[in-house]
Amino acid sequence: MRLLGLDVGIKKIGVAFCDTDIGIVFPREVITVKDLKSSIGKIKEIVAKDRVDKVVIGLPLNFNSTKSKIQEYVEDFSNKLKEELNIDIELFDERFTTRIAERFGVKNVDSVSAVILLEDYIKAFLRGSGGCEI
Questions:
Q1: Which helix (H) or strand (E) segment is 4 a member of?
Q2: Would you say 15 and 6 are in contact if contact means Cβ atoms under 8 Å apart?
Q3: I need a labelling partner for 63 at 20 to 30 A (CA). Which of 93, 96, 98, 133 fits?
């Protein structure tokens, strides 16, 4: 299964990829958000090029599981992406992924956050079927 992880923000979208047959999660180039249409277009290109089976989008919940300020934006983005793609799209809790990525001291925090999100998703749902490692 080919998975694409997205850490969606208002200014940037972190991207990660995993082919469960290979078993490694790769950070991809960050998408700079200019407008919704171009961001979705770039994601569509990645999905087509890499033959992605499922997109996992980070759901930014607050610590106490209440809605965060950006959650509505991410949910709208996810719904618009679903209209454009003919593959599964799933929202998955991304709490603390950015803070964890920042601890690595990397330049590409957004895509490392997407890697952490995708690895957490795989651990939760796919570990028994091969899964992926960072």
A1: strand 2-8
A2: yes
A3: 133
State how far the alpha carbon of 81 is from the alpha carbons of 74, 77, 86, 87, 126, in Å: 10, 6, 9, 10, 23
Q: For the segment 50-85, what is each residue's pLDDT rounded down to a tens digit?
A: 999 999 999 988 777 777 788 999 999 999 999 999
Burial string for 14-30 (b: 16+ CB within 10 Å, else e) reads: bbbbbbbeeeebbbbeb
pTM above 0.85, yes or no: yes
Annotate 5-25 with DSSP letters as a single string.
EEEE-SSEEEEEEEETTTTEE
At residue 58's C-alpha, the angle toward residues 34 and 50, to 5°, is: 70
- Per the document, the length of the chain is 134
What is the helix (H) or strand (E) element at residue 78, kind and residue range?
Answer: helix 71-84
